[in-house]
């Protein structure tokens, strides 16, 4: 049981490290124009010169995958951080307000949750010119809802613990209890929510790009590449679809694996807290 | 309201006076109804009763942690002017509270040293922390190497020792021990009772000890009170007031 866990930890950490190194250093080591068209070498099958082959306008698929993953990771991380900050603030404020204010905030959260994220996201990107930041704003603004719920529930359950009573009896102010006892207790949960949000945000970015609403079509993005490759796949040229797909799936699984390890690290202590 | 504190000989105001307390958690089903209890200065009162009879609620009311629906609380002669965060800091810290379960009463992220020092930090007396925590840890029997550990790295007994030290760190005039020893073995129980009694002998602090261990409370306290007579749900119509008993061989008056 421990051995499989260790394997999972090292696999996740190794994969995430490899992805980060690749998206940081490959563009530095191969400063080529990943958007340059080379019709003389279009749709070449994987070979030594082009390990992932070339696409329908002769661009190297491996390089475009790396550049695309870079954009996706950037969007994913920034959007996840933004949504976590919004969600934590709203959830904590809602729990702190209590009563009518709390009910009002949570009903607003319910209303937003009832609309599919992607639909709301499309609505937001449609208001801007295509680019990276509209996608970040769209994903960030649609994904804080679950974090707000988690943080609110956590604060509510923490607030009635005896250690808060002990702090009050020790003369702590409301602010001190919030800063010293409640926030540190909520941060691991919020951090976990942020990490889990990264793959989700990457998938949303890809979905928006695939629908033609995300990044400009010439930019290398995993969603754009899969969209572009649809025609060639029908002709039997599988590599422009398969490799971006793998670049989408493997890093997201690795990040999710990392989040799983984190969750296990949080939980044992929690269990011991509740056990007695 | 014939408060026991008004008896001749005890001219100081009682450490704790609860009068006509009605309290509960759910509307229309009070846990306590019209309960009155007085703990004189320097006196040790044991509150006895089975689980669920409201004795812990009464302890929380006495420590200003639970707002009663009716009734008044006087601490050292001063009427309570608020509950929880709204209580004036001096009134809140007048009562040092030890809870039944050290696990839930300790912030799992603090080291034992930080846990004991927290009330000093919260009241702007952080400079005294090193000195006072060291002395208190010594008194409750926690070695220096334990003070750097976090709650999940120590036993229940060790954690409860730290919680007792935390309750004493602000020199409270009243100690409220809510089933303090329920989770502990006999030797730790004896050690912690000794710590509390040493502190009381030194400072003249009063004690409200809540529990269901009759033998322990009758030996520990000057007098014991049956919580059943204080307004527990099944007894409330019969005896709305405290039925106070004095065990034989124990002086009835406080020091």
Automatic annotation (TrEMBL), chain A:
**Any idea where the ABC transmembrane type-1 domain is?**
69-259
Reply yes or no: does the keyword Metal-binding apply. no
Sequence intervals crossing the membrane: 7-30, 71-92, 104-126, 242-262
Gene Ontology annotations of biological process type: transmembrane transport
- Keyword Cell membrane in record: yes
Query: How is this protein annotated for GO cellular component?
Result: plasma membrane
CDD domains attached to this UniProt entry:
TM_PBP2
Coiled-coil residues are none
Principal location listed in the UniProt entry? membrane
Protein's membrane topology: Multi-pass membrane protein
Q: Which SUPFAM superfamilies match?
A: MetI-like (SSF161098)
Q: Where does this polypeptide localize?
A: Cell membrane
Keyword annotations from UniProtKB, A to Z: Cell membrane, Membrane, Transmembrane, Transmembrane helix, Transport
Matching InterPro entries: BP-dependent_transpt_permease, MetI-like, MetI-like_sf
Could you say which protein family the record assigns here? Answer: Belongs to the binding-protein-dependent transport system permease family.
This one is known as ABC transporter permease
Specify the species: Streptomyces cacaoi
Automatic annotation (TrEMBL), chain B:
Asked whether the keyword Nucleotide-binding is assigned, the reply is: yes
Q: Which Pfam families match?
A: ABC_tran (PF00005)
Spans annotated as Disordered: 230-255
GO BP term, pick one: transmembrane transport
Quote the Gene3D superfamilies the UniProt record gives. Answer: P-loop containing nucleotide triphosphate hydrolases
The keyword Nucleotidyltransferase is assigned to this record: no
Task: Give the range the annotation lists for the signal sequence.
Answer: none
UniProt biased composition (Basic and acidic residues): 233-244
Q: Which SMART domains match?
A: AAA
Lineage: superkingdom: Bacteria
Family annotation (InterPro entries): AAA+_ATPase (IPR003593), ABC_transp_ATP-bind (IPR050319), ABC_transporter-like_ATP-bd (IPR003439), P-loop_NTPase (IPR027417)
ABC transporter domain residues: 16-254
> What keyword terms does UniProt attach to this protein?
ATP-binding, Nucleotide-binding, Transport
UniProt GO molecular function: ATP binding; ATP hydrolysis activity
The family line of this record is: Belongs to the ABC transporter superfamily.
Question: Entry's PANTHER family?
Answer: D,D-DIPEPTIDE TRANSPORT ATP-BINDING PROTEIN DDPF-RELATED, TRANSPORT ATP-BINDING PROTEIN
Q: What is this protein called?
A: ABC transporter ATP-binding protein
Query: Can you name the source organism?
Result: Streptomyces cacaoi
């Amino acid at each position: 049981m421990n051995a499989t866990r260790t394997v999972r930890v090292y696999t996740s950490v190794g994969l995430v490290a490899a992805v980060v190194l690749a998206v940081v250093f490959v563009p530095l080591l191969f400063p080529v124009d990943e958007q340059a068209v080379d019709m003389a070498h279009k749709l070449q099958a994987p070979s030594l010169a082009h390990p992932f082959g070339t696409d329908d306008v002769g661009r190297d698929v491996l390089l475009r995958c790396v550049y695309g993953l870079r954009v996706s990771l950037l969007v994913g991380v920034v959007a996840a951080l933004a949504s976590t900050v919004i969600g934590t603030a709203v959830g904590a404020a809602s729990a702190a307000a209590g009563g009518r204010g709390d009910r009002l905030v949570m009903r607003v959260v319910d209303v937003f949750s009832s609309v599919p994220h992607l639909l709301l996201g499309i609505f937001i990107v449609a208001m801007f010119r295509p680019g990276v930041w509209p996608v970040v704003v769209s994903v960030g603004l649609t994904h804080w809802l679950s974090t707000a719920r988690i943080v609110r529930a956590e604060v509510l359950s923490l607030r009635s613990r005896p250690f808060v009573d002990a702090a009050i009896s020790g003369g702590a102010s409301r602010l001190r209890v919030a800063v010293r006892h409640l926030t540190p207790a909520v941060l691991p949960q919020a951090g976990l929510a942020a990490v889990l949000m990264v793959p989700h945000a990457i998938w949303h970015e890809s979905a928006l790009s695939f629908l033609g609403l995300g990044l400009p079509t010439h930019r290398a993005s995993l969603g754009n590449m899969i969209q572009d490759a649809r025609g060639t796949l029908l002709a039997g040229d599988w590599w422009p679809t398969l490799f971006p797909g793998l670049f989408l799936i493997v890093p997201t699984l690795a990040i999710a694996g990392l989040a799983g390890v984190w969750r296990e690290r949080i939980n044992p202590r929690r269990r011991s807290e509740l056990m007695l | 309201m014939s408060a026991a504190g008004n008896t001749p000989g005890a001219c100081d105001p009682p450490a704790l006076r609860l009068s006509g307390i009605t309290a509960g958690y759910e509307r229309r089903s009070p846990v306590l109804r019209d309960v009155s209890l007085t703990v004189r200065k320097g006196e040790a009162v044991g509150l006895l009763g089975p689980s669920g009879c409201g004795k812990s609620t009464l302890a929380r009311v006495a420590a200003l942690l639970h707002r009663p629906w009716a009734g008044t609380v006087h601490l050292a002669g001063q009427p309570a002017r608020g509950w929880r965060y709204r209580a004036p800091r001096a009134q809140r810290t007048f009562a040092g509270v030890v809870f039944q379960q050290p696990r839930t009463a300790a912030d799992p992220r603090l080291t034992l040293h930080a846990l004991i020092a927290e009330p000093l930090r919260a009241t702007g007396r952080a400079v005294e922390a090193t000195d006072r925590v060291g002395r208190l840890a010594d008194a409750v029997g926690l070695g220096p190497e334990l003070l750097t550990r976090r709650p999940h790295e120590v036993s229940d007994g060790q954690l409860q020792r730290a919680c007792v030290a935390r309750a004493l760190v602000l020199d409270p005039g009243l100690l409220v021990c809510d089933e303090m020893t329920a989770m502990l073995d006999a030797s730790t129980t004896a050690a912690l009772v000794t710590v509390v009694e040493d502190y009381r002998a030194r400072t003249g602090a009063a004690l409200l000890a809540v529990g269901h261990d009759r033998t322990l409370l009758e030996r520990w306290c000057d007098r014991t009170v049956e919580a059943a007579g204080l307004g527990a749900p099944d007894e409330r119509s019969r005896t709305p007031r405290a039925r106070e008993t004095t065990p034989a061989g124990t002086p009835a008056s406080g020091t």
